[in-house]
């Protein structure tokens, strides 16, 4: 077998990596002041590092009071959705080189949820909307099989996209409808309803559709595609919402 | 300070904690305290799969699975526990399917299965398809499915509550669990939870290493809380280094990549695992593969200008297969390395991955105060615990299994105990230890910084107690850790507030890491043999005569307040299998 070409990384590894970047961070701490302010930090970063690495550098070397949530650091736990240069992203999945480090990089909390301190927002309303769509498999269970329920690969594929959701809220907090009216379920809740409505094993599709048929349900969506752009898992959020809308009209899913 | 009263309190909402919560909530008034929102737990990072001998795609049975688990653990596994793990695996996968988990399917609609390291047919004959999976997102699906079912069952969560102390009350000379003390992130308030049963499910402790697949939040808080109260920690010297972490970052690339046919290559493009493990090759057990990688690197066959990594080559696999079976890890390579895995090999190095050791329990999840006595009302399950089903080295896909099997068992056992037992009285001033610790940190004017001490700790751990160890390197680590523990007394933080003070909590977490690093190093120094994940170059062979036994480490405090670690040993439970040499 041919030896794979291995020079790509090696070339990168020898260049001197560090550059100076400015992080312009939205600060808010009600223990100190009722006003939110912008604060600039200068730091040395390798452009291949993450925005999260930059935030850690600030916290660990310059200002320990800077507050944000994070855990996994590679885009699977959903802790660190924030507005970076005006767009919702995960700080741990955004590399410095991908966001023009020549200008100050702005970092703010996601919009539409109450800011509690710096980049930390109140996630409770978001999780409440999620819980409201009954995000769990419901079956009549008159004949619970002893082995697994069967599901064809095609039926499994039908809802694959929406199983990827990590509940980061990037979509919901990028939605202009949600900004104006926090009662709207928001895209993430609809994505999670979709995950069950289109699961061949689930038997509560009608109930879930009724919930989403509500005044604050899917019909509020104005198809701005912000959510699809924001989703760090690459879920086609707007398409999922459209499929739910269609199911509401045709009652077929 | 607030006092709460619950029958059962569960510490942690990862896979083990939520699996326990689903059972406990049905049987007793239960609270789950978790420092992260449940869906942020690191179970969600698990990729490859969950082992169970379903035999959906080829012949398999739980006895073969038991054997592989025992052999994989280099015979330090308690065989009665391994047998339970392998037997109950089948139902625990089926339970998850019924809860809604979207497993990948075979053409006839059953749960699909794939190969994983160390899992074999008929006692090592050839690799077997035993891992049940959902693409390379199995942990994510488990975490989501369990959270969904917690919502369904109305489990009561206290999110962003950090448990910092275990309360013990002696009744008739026997140590009982009385509850826990927690710190609420949002407000800085201290909460005492009095409970008949407490279950620790607070996960691993990988953050004392620098290159690790573990989350920033995996700081061993549960292990440290019980250890500080005089309870033992078992087999802490056994830590697993996963062969394929992304070079320098440590982000995991699942063994499933090799299960799908991926190959490890050195700088000459050679498939070097053929030399070290002629039968299982790239799918030998993890300790074997990690050592082989470092042997290649040390002998000058590593890749890159510094020769400090090797390659995981997926380029011969069809892009459709990568998209269908390994979508997330190929995306990690693109995002973090700018590499296209269809055409380019991925630079990797071993990454600190999994704690085999932890809080000793029996097969019901009851925590042990010594080799035989249980602590009434205290339970542990998941990575925080040591049952021991993983012995000296855990097989891939056996941890997602462990958290489900023993999470469920602990949930049932703890709730049933709570139904019968009375509350034991809280100790006097139950919050005092935590209040003292927090106030000391908040008011300290010392000149040491958390980030600096943590960096030095991680560097010494990576350099001295990773894949290869010697008396010399371990002693270097022990001395360094002692120095860091001294300097930790002078640590100061900048954030003096009460609201979301993560500066403060990082300092607390560092204290836990330092305590546990010391236990690990001291346990490793005393184990003068090589077994599974613990490899001593100065004692390269397994020594069953002297070391076929579990390490039990206790914290001792002298009359003058000086702390030390006392080591004791516990016999290994052997039933069916006699120790043999491990060959792959
Ligand atoms: C990248 C990666 C991939 C993996 N892939 C696989 C795989 O394919 N197959 C497999 O079998 N295993 C795999 N593993 C191992 C397996 O995922 C873990 O061992 C397992 O998920 C641990 O689950 P847990 O419930 O014990 O802990 P976690 O999921 O880590 O949960 C810990 C919980 O404890 C809480 N907690 C921690 N400290 C405190 C505190 N002080 N107070 C309150 N709450 C606290 C946290 O909030 C969290 O909810 C993988 C591990 C990693 C890191
Ligand atoms: S749909 Fe995407 S953006 Fe929205 S919560 Fe889920 S993962 Fe985040
Ligand atoms: S820290 Fe987990 S998604 Fe970014």
Automatic annotation (TrEMBL), chain A:
Binds 1 [4Fe-4S] cluster. Binds 1 [2Fe-2S] cluster. It catalyses: a quinone + succinate = fumarate + a quinol. The keyword ATP-binding does not apply. GO terms for molecular function: succinate dehydrogenase (quinone) activity. Residues 19-113 form the 2Fe-2S ferredoxin-type domain. Its EC number is 1.3.5.1. Residues 155-177 form the 4Fe-4S ferredoxin-type domain. It is an enzyme of class 1 (oxidoreductase). InterPro entries: 2Fe-2S_ferredoxin-like_sf, 2Fe-2S_ferredoxin-type, 4Fe4S_Fe-S-bd, 4Fe4S_Fe_S_CS, Beta-grasp_dom_sf, Helical_ferredxn, SDH/FRD_Iron-Sulfur, Succ_DH/fum_Rdtase_Fe-S. Keywords: 2Fe-2S, 3Fe-4S, 4Fe-4S, Iron, Iron-sulfur, Metal-binding, Oxidoreductase, Tricarboxylic acid cycle. PANTHER family: SUCCINATE DEHYDROGENASE [UBIQUINONE] IRON-SULFUR SUBUNIT, MITOCHONDRIAL (PTHR11921:SF29), SUCCINATE DEHYDROGENASE IRON-SULFUR PROTEIN (PTHR11921). NCBIfam families: dhsB (TIGR00384), PRK05950.1 (NF004616). This is Succinate dehydrogenase iron-sulfur subunit. It comes from Streptomyces viridiviolaceus. The lineage of its organism: Bacteria, Bacillati, Actinomycetota, Actinomycetes, Kitasatosporales.
From TrEMBL, chain B:
Pathway: Carbohydrate metabolism; tricarboxylic acid cycle; fumarate from succinate (bacterial route): step 1/1. It holds the Pfam family FAD_binding_2. It is an enzyme of class 1 (oxidoreductase). Residues 7-400 form the FAD-dependent oxidoreductase 2 FAD-binding domain. It catalyses: a quinone + succinate = fumarate + a quinol. PROSITE patterns: FRD_SDH_FAD_BINDING. Keywords: Coiled coil, Electron transport, FAD, Flavoprotein, Membrane, Oxidoreductase, Transport, Tricarboxylic acid cycle. Residues 454-584 form the Fumarate reductase/succinate dehydrogenase flavoprotein-like C-terminal domain. Its cofactor is FAD. It is found in: Membrane. Belongs to the FAD-dependent oxidoreductase 2 family. FRD/SDH subfamily. This is Succinate dehydrogenase flavoprotein subunit.
């Amino acid at each position: 077998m041919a030896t794979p070409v291995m020079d790509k990384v090696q070339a990168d590894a020898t260049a001197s990596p560090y550059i100076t970047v400015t992080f312009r961070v939205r600060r808010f701490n009600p223990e100190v002041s009722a006003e939110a302010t912008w604060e600039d930090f200068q730091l040395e970063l390798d452009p291949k590092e993450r925005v999260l690495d930059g935030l850690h550098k600030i916290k660990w070397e310059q200002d320990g009071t800077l507050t944000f949530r994070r855990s996994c650091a590679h885009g699977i736990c959903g802790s660190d959705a924030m507005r970076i240069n005006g767009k919702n992203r995960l700080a741990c999945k955004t590399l410095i080189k991908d966001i023009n480090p020549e200008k100050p990089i702005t970092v703010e909390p996601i919009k539409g949820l109450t800011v509690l301190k710096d980049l930390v927002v109140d996630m409770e309303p978001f999780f409440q909307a999620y819980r409201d769509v009954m995000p769990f498999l419901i079956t009549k269970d008159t004949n619970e099989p002893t082995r697994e329920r069967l599901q064809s690969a095609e039926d499994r594929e039908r809802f694959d996209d929406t199983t990827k959701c990590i509940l980061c809220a990037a979509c919901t907090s990028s939605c202009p409808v949600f900004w104006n009216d926090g009662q709207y379920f928001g895209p993430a809740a609809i994505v999670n309803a979709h995950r069950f409505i289109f699961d061949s094993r689930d038997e509560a599709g009608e109930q879930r559709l009724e919930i989403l048929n509500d005044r604050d349900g899917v019909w509020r969506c104005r198809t701005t595609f912000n959510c699809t752009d924001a989703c760090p898992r690459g879920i086609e959020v707007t398409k999922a919402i459209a499929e739910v809308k269609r199911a509401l009209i045709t009652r077929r899913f | 300070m607030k006092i709460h009263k619950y029958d059962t309190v569960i510490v942690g909402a990862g896979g083990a904690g939520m699996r326990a919560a689903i059972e406990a909530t049905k049987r007793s008034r239960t609270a789950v305290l978790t420092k992260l929102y449940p869906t942020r737990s690191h179970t969600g990072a698990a990729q490859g799969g969950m082992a169970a001998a379903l035999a959906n795609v080829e012949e398999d049975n739980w006895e073969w699975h038991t054997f592989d688990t025992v052999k994989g653990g280099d015979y330090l596994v308690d065989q009665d526990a391994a047998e339970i793990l392998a037997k109950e695996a089948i139902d625990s996968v089926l339970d998850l399917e019924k809860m809604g988990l979207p497993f990948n399917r075979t053409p006839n609609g059953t749960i699909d299965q794939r190969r994983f390291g160390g899992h074999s047919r008929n006692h090592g004959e050839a690799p077997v398809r035993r891992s049940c999976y959902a693409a390379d997102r199995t942990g994510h699906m488990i975490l989501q499915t369990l959270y969904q079912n917690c919502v369904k069952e109305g489990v009561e969560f206290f999110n962003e509550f950090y448990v910092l102390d275990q309360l013990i009350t002696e009744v008739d000379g026997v140590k009982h669990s009385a509850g826990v003390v927690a710190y609420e992130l949002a407000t800085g308030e201290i909460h005492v939870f009095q409970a008949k049963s407490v279950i620790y499910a607070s996960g691993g402790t990988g953050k004392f290493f620098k290159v690790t697949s573990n989350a920033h939040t995996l700081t061993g808080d549960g292990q440290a809380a019980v250890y500080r109260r005089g309870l033992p920690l078992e087999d802490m010297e056994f830590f697993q280094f996963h062969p394929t972490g992304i070079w320098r970052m440590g982000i995991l690339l699942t063994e499933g990549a090799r299960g799908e046919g991926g190959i490890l290559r050195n700088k000459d493009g050679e498939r070097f695992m053929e030399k070290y493990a002629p039968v299982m090759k790239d799918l030998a057990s993890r300790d074997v593969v990690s050592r082989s990688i470092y042997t290649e690197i040390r002998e000058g066959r590593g890749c890159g200008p510094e020769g400090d990594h090797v390659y995981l080559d997926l380029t011969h696999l069809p892009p459709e297969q990568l998209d269908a079976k390994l979508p997330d890890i190929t995306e990690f390579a693109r995002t973090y390395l700018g590499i296209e895995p269809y055409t380019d090999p991925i630079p990797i190095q071993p990454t600190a991955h999994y704690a085999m050791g932890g809080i000793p329990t029996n097969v019901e999840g009851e925590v042990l105060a010594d080799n035989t006595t249980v602590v009434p009302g205290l339970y542990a399950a998941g990575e925080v615990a040591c049952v021991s089903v993983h012995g000296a080295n855990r097989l891939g896909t056996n941890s997602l299994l462990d958290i489900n099997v023993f999470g469920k068992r602990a949930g049932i056992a703890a709730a049933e105990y709570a139904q019968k037992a009375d509350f034991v009285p809280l100790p006097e001033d139950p919050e005092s230890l935590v209040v003292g610790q927090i106030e000391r940190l908040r008011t300290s004017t010392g000149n040491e910084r958390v980030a600096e001490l943590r960096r030095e700790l991680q560097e010494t751990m990576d350099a001295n107690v990773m894949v290869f160890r010697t008396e010399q390197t371990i002693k270097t680590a022990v001395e360094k850790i002692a120095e860091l523990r001294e300097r930790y007394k002078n640590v100061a933080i900048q954030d003096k507030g009460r609201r979301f003070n993560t500066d403060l909590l990082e300092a607390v977490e560092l204290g836990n890491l330092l305590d546990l690093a010391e236990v690990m190093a001291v346990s490793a120094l005393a184990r003068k043999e090589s077994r599974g994940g613990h490899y001593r170059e100065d004692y390269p062979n397994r020594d069953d005569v002297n070391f076929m036994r579990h390490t039990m480490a206790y914290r001792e405090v002298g009359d003058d307040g000086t702390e030390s670690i006392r080591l004791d040993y516990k016999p290994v439970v052997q039933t069916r299998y006699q120790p043999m040499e491990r060959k792959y």
